[in-house]
Amino acid sequence: MGPWDPNWRPDPTGGRLIAIRAARRGALVSAVIFGGLEVVATVVALPVATETPGWSFGAGVILALFSLPGLALLGAGLTSAALGSRSSAASAGLAMGVGIPVAAVSSAMIGAFVLVSAVPGAGNGAAVAGMLLRTGVTAAVRISPLIALASTAWVLLVRRLGRSAEPRAMRVSRGRGPRRRGG
Questions:
Q1: Which of 100, 138, 132 is nearest to 115 (CA)?
Q2: Rounded CA gap, 39 and 31, in Å?
């Protein structure tokens, strides 16, 4: 449903716009945090890195660029859960920890398959995708503590950015109620 639907009406509360902006911030934070982590994982686990040392950082950056769409989509999708209750935010953090390796490896496999298949004589795209799958799983296991820390940092940053960007009239009070003065 959108502006092209005959029954569409603008949101008078502004809640839809707040949710869209929060999802954008969640996607950006996810891409920045986990994109950097992707470079570290690639440098640690890529077989090409052991054969040619100069290529490890470049390959890490290219694979991180291939992974950014998946990382950003996962971050945008889980932002609303991270902005909810504390248990919902904990669930979103757990989902990020489990989903980030899957999203990163899937996006990198798709990007590498398309790139290798598009270049004539570059090799078999399926073989490259299979190598990336094996390497990605190995890298995710090696840096799993960093993924857990980054997921926690993502939840904290999204909650911090989400609460500060919300207008005062839209905020839900989480305290004991209004403070009494003088007594």
A1: 132
A2: 12
Query: How many helices, marked H, and strands, marked E, lie in the chain?
Result: 6, 0
Tally of CB atoms within 10 A around 30: 29
Helix then strand then coil, % of the chain, to nearest 5 = 75, 0, 25
Provide CB contacts within 8 A for 58, sequence distance 6+. Answer: none
Report the distance separating Cα 46 and Cα 163, nearest Å.
39
Q: How many CB atoms lie within 10 A of CB 93?
A: 22
Q: Are 69 and 107 in contact (CB under 8 A)?
A: yes
CA-based Rg of the chain, rounded to a whole angstrom? 21
Task: Give the global pTM.
Answer: 0.77
The owner of tokens 């949710």 is 19
Give how far Cα 38 sits from Cα of 24, 97, 116, Å. 20, 13, 20
Nearest to 144 by CA among 77, 96, 108: 96
Q: Using one digit for the tens of pLDDT, what is the confidence trace for 68-127?
A: 999 999 999 999 999 999 999 999 999 999 999 999 989 988 888 888 888 777 677 788
